[in-house]
Amino acid sequence: ATPEDLGEKLENVPQCLSRIVASHKNIIAYLPKQLIAEDFAGRILDEGKITPASFLGGKLWYPTAQPAPQFGVLPLILGTLWVSIAAILIALPFGLAVAIYMAELAGHRLRNLLKPVIELLAGIPSVVYGFFGLVVIVPLVQRTFSLPVGETGLAGAVILAIMALPTIITVAEDAIRNTPRAMKESSLALGATHWQTIRKVVIPYSISGITAAVVLGIGRALGETMAVLMVTGNAAVMPHTLLEPLRTIPATIAAELGEAPAGGAHYEALFLLGCILFLLTLVISISVEMINAKRPKQSV
User: CATH number of 74-293: 3.40.1190.20, 1.10.3430.10, 1.10.3720.10, 1.25.40.10?
Assistant: First the structure.
């Protein structure tokens, strides 16, 4: 701005600053309050004012931005739900199929071989699954869908599905094997085939155990940290598809808690994220139990 634009007594400084801000879209300007014009062309950030609506409904997560940090947790909540639900949709059919095969179809020797191997998978550290995802799953997703990067929500969902499979298989298989032998023999004596007996007798009888397997699998998917942090891209942006990078709540807490000043707004926001994660797990678990309770009871 020229001296003529500013005025003899600098009375035109607010208008000049407003014009400069309007001509630069991405500028962040630090202005004294007395130099902000009434018709200021920019957007004034509310420094230090974090409301529940802006926290839960905000779409920007920039906790270290200055002068006004942005604590919008909506991208983190949606990222967590997208990855977890996709993981369960992938893992549940495979897990239930393997559980039925081991309990009803596999021979004694094969079952004794498969069961320890599947239970051993549950003891592998999550960081090992993360490395497996980086080496195998991420390049596969990138080549299959012709993406610029393979670190996406789909890669995280596949890794979580693999990690949840041992829990789902073990719990569901134990529930299916607890079906009384008399019930299965009665069904076969009435002329039902083996598959009809499994579908009409065994699965309805063991539905509570299968529900428990689903709840445990969802809990494993919601709370997983390292593997998801390594393969999802760790980008705190609004997810639109599973083929984009995203970030989950556990990954955010793990990545940022060590650098957040104790007692500060960032530190407290991360602890509130932990509370939101707990509530999400509780709501999903209660919902699954309520859906199971509303199923009509089937008699044999």
Answer: 1.10.3720.10
DSSP state of 35: G
Radius of gyration, alpha carbons of the chain? 27
Q: How far apart are the first and last CA of the chain?
A: 88
Q: How far apart are CA 66 and CA 27, in angstroms?
A: 13
Helix and strand tally (H, E) in the chain? 15, 2
Which of the 8 DSSP states describes residue 62?
A: E
Segment 230-254, tens digit of pLDDT: 999 988 889 899 999 999 999 999 9
Residue 259: DSSP 8-state: G
3-class SS at 70?
strand
Sequence-distant (≥ 6) Cβ neighbours of residue 263 within 8 angstroms = none
Sign of the four-CA dihedral 282, 285, 287, 293: negative
Handedness of CA 262, 263, 269, 272 (dihedral sign): positive
**Dihedral sign, CA of 209, 210, 215, 219?**
positive
Query: What's this model's pTM, rounded to 2 decimal places?
Result: 0.78
Could you tell me how many residues make up the chain?
300
